[in-house]
Amino acid sequence: MKSFTGGCLCGEIRYQITAEAGPSRICWCRDCQKISSNGTVNVIFPSDAIKISGAPGQHEKTADSGNTVTRRFCASCGTQLFSDSSGRPGLTVVRVGTLDEPSTVKPTTNIWVASAPSWACVDPSLEQFEGPPVVAPQPKA
Question: Residues in domain CENP-V/GFA (predicted)?
Answer without folding.
Answer: 4-120
